[in-house]
From TrEMBL, chains A, B:
Source species: Rhodohalobacter mucosus
Source organism, top-level taxon: Bacteria
Protein name: R2-like ligand binding oxidase
CDD domains: RNRR2_Rv0233_like
NCBIfam families from the UniProt entry: PRK08326.1-3, PRK08326.1-5
Region (Disordered): 149-176
Length: 450, 450
């Protein structure tokens, strides 16, 4: 038997005054309402009697020829509190009905009348719901004033209810909003990139058909399949990594109040998510088995994508100094995107273009490449913004670039090392040269003063 | 005079052996190379002489009838190191040229040969650039072995160069990638929402014309202009707030490894950025003056949008417990989006629809509303996911909802309180009722077990 039912039956059996819903309990409640500062303040404008109907009607109320409880409420005081009779309902009043269980929860367990009203446990039989919800504070004060039962059968849950998820010291309010105080700088480089992203970055990976890709896959030799799966497994993890690892950077940019930049990076992030989806679809729908990371992700790849990249970015959680931002952006934008991804796209083309293989994959890669060119442009712009303000960091930044370029070339070595003869006639030397050229293009755009 | 130049001139003036580029210095360098474990390991496969040309040729080298330095390198050792003569260049060798300053930077200041090669300070006159870059480690070891100058004129920056932005303990590597190990769950609710977002959420705020909006604005009464500006200033800050405040939630979801959810939230975030852009454009291009936040953002609005919302979300930075996630999502998705924004859209329609005013604004608001319906659907799904796993939180969550609904209704009161007669015939009672209904619709979708 539930505690409410148990308690209520106990209240009925024991006719002693002072128990729940007894005459003296009702009078105690009235006195308590009139002592409540909270009620008198919040109900100052409430001037209409309230009737609490019990539906279905418990025997106890039947025995009193009553349908529930009548409260006459005037300007923050309760002038009368008694058993309600059915004729009361016809007068000018607000009528609420609920089951005995719900009334007990409201009167004794600190449950919230607004929520009960919204979830249908409490019904408004007469009166305006808006009026009632607007006076939610007054209603709560009214119910809170009800004398508690003398026993301990009903657990009072109000203590455990307070402050859910709010046990932290208050932190990070907004001081002001940029768009309110000064609008957006539509002429800024990030907003111009954002305009491009809204036009060129809205392609849908799901629209790309892999029909021919599937038949091409079946016709490939085992070696050819291996290298396609190899490269795709590098992109799969790579795109997921950048989708995850961009988050600390966008947070720092937002915290610095650079709303135009944050707006651009939202498109950047969304595009990375689509790239992740694209490669996941390709692997699931064409290759049809998940790649074996331990097989295809070598030590140098793992070092960069499993460790250095996430660490360079998540370091921003604790330290958003220019040096940390430079490492984050150089690792992400210059090496992962600007050198390795670019070289990977070229590998797909070299393998597939001449023989018109896997048009779906190539179509997606072409779109990816377009998106990435905006990402890299933003990254270089960000690096230059930081370099311009921090000339002392130039020498160490150059060393960082060298370290990262070595990471990139090591990955390219590592890929080719697995093959005696690389399918599709790919040559390591050509790819190393291509990667270095990509890197060099990015370098040339940096404003390094030596 | 720069320190390199100064040093070099000093070296030229002082002919003592042991100084830079003297015969004995060259022999010291050769010995040092042959003692270098780093060089012998990394250059094991290098078997071709290297010539370092000085361009323009300094007098010191001219006096030796030399064009630079010749190093014969065999399987990780240096068999000969001497002044180079011009005929050496014609032999089978790799030739690099640089200015005296650049050579000094490379040989004495730990500057990086790969970067010098990429930025043009070091030129490859003969040989393969890829070969050279592939042997970057060997080249660095070769240069590092050069005897340091005896003076202290040249600052050695190699110490300050190390570890830029990398002074944090390593943290948060990726253990594995979901897309690699198990692919994406395209049947999950978040991925289905993502599919919708890629179709319906790609509208471009910049495509919306405000031409008629501008003429409508000019024809409005001062009171009408005031309420349009009032409502727009609430949306302006509101959209910027949600664009900023979503970031801690997406981070938590990503950290929990819920890649499908993160993918969906990237579209959610991108849409919020576009909503921010939309209202910024409307205010800048139609109203043409920034709204006065102090005038339009009342105490209850400020409490929610400047404090409670950012705090509920940024609390996730330190505590991603279910209770904190519930408060974050209830505040963001149920109240700000699901109750207040929805009511605000309705206010625009009620003011503008009947008189066919401001079609650009209405078009944008219609798109916003579509986007928001996906956001709210995700929020409810998220709340239900957490509620299902945490039944103990149900009672306190209900109290939280009541607290937040009160925040929302207080904001609506506060808005209408500023007007004796609200322009366009808006009525407070109608809006309170609408807001409560929106809230109730959301409530009904929650799996609260009482």
């Amino acid at each position: 038997m539930n505690p409410f039912k148990e308690y209520f039956i106990k209240g009925q059996q024991n006719k002693d005054e002072g128990h729940l819903f007894s005459d003296s309990w009702l009078q105690e409640w009235r006195k308590s309402i009139n002592k409540s500062e909270s009620y008198s303040k919040q109900a100052a404008a409430w001037n209409i009697p309230l009737i609490l109907l019990f539906k279905p009607l418990p025997d106890f109320f039947k025995s009193k020829n009553s349908v529930g409880i009548y409260l006459d409420l005037r300007s923050g005081t309760c002038t009368e509190l008694r058993y309600a009779v059915s004729d009361d309902i016809e007068t000018n009043c607000v009528v609420l009905s609920a089951s005995e269980k719900s009334w007990l929860q409201l009167l004794q367990s600190g449950k919230n009348p607004t929520l009960f009203l919204l979830n249908g446990k409490l019904k408004l039989e007469k009166g305006s719901k808006t009026l009632l919800v607007s006076n939610a504070g007054a209603a709560k004060a009214l119910l809170d004033a009800a004398p508690s039962n003398s026993g301990d059968q009903i657990p009072n849950v109000s203590e455990q209810e307070s402050n859910i998820g709010n046990n932290r010291p208050t932190s990070e309010p907004h001081e002001r909003f940029s768009t309110v105080t000064k609008g957006l700088d539509f002429e800024s480089f990030p907003m111009k990139l954002f305009q491009k992203a809204k036009i060129y970055g809205v392609w849908n990976p799901s629209d790309i058909s892999f029909e021919k890709d599937r038949s091409d896959w079946k016709n490939m030799s085992a070696d050819e399949q291996t290298i396609i799966m190899h490269l795709s497994s590098l992109f799969l993890a790579g795109e997921e990594a950048v989708t995850l690892d961009l988050l600390p950077l966008i947070r720092v940019i937002a915290k610095e109040g650079r709303i135009e930049e944050e707006i651009y990076i939202t498109s950047f992030l969304w595009e990375e998510a689509k790239h992740t989806e694209f490669f996941a679809r390709f692997v699931m729908e064409v290759i049809k088995t998940q790649p074996d990371a331990d097989r295809f992700h070598g030590p140098f790849y793992k070092k960069l994508f499993y460790e250095k990249l996430p660490q360079a970015l998540s370091a921003l959680d604790h330290d958003r100094s220019p040096a940390v931002q430079l490492r984050a952006s150089a690792t992400y934008n210059m090496i992962v995107e600007g050198t390795l991804a670019e070289t990977g796209y070229e590998a797909y083309y070299k393998m597939l273009d001449d023989h018109d293989l896997m048009p779906g994959l190539r179509e997606g890669v072409l779109k990816l490449k377009q998106d990435e060119s905006r990402h890299i442009a933003y990254g270089l712009w960000l690096i230059n913004r930081i370099l311009e303000e921090n000339e002392d960091l130039h020498p160490s930044f150059e060393n960082l670039l060298d370290e990262l370029l070595t990471d990139a070339t090591n990955i390219i070595h590592e890929i080719f090392d697995r093959y005696d003869t690389v399918p599709f006639g790919l040559e390591e030397e050509w790819f190393l040269d291509y990667a270095i050229k990509q890197f060099q293009h990015r370098m040339e755009k940096l404003k390094l003063n030596n």
